[in-house]
Please model this.
Amino acid sequence: MANETILIVDDEDSIRDMIAMSLELSGYQCLHASTALEAHTLVTEHRPNLILLDWMMPGISGIELARRLRRDNATKNTPIIMLTAKGEEDNKIEGLDSGVDDYITKPFSTKELTARIKALLRRSGAVEETSLQYNGLAIDPVAHRVSVNGEPLKLGPTEYRMLEFFMTHPERAYSREQLLDGVWGGTVYIDDRTVDVHIRRLRKALAEFGFDKYIQTVRGTGYRFSSNPETS
Model:
């Protein structure tokens, strides 16, 4: 299943709900915005992996928002698909010239839209980054930020690296020595029991949101990150 976050920007509630229902069935996480200003705030806070952007909206248009996002270094490479009722060739060219990656004309089938999203995420490489999301626990590897259901989670630098390592290697048990190599690097010489100290700190931070059970002790081996701890 997918774990990518899609921002749906459209001033019509029914269209947003229809798209979100389809995408969530395919495993995507969805954010909603009815205006360009609201969308810009969500982009800044959540860094979605792809944006579905309506052309015609009250206030700032989708085209103008796309241009703003492309001028910002933090979002210049975020994939954008333009959603619009405009089907004429010159309007499509204007949309692509604004920096959007793809263009789909209303009315459209959600099956076609999902296929285009999957293809664009593969081309952009966004699929790899979104492997760092599990049931609301998310890491932004570019900004080095951790959040739970959108709420920031403060971690020390070592705990951050440890969580990132675990989330990029889920369901696999690692010994303390392997974690030392993966988190600290093979050239660092410290007692392997240091791993236990940082595991406790990481669990304590995650416990505030009920996610400490994701870090599991494997008797006789070490530790692992379980993306579905209830079934492990």
In short: Residues 127-131 have pLDDT under 50 and may be disordered.
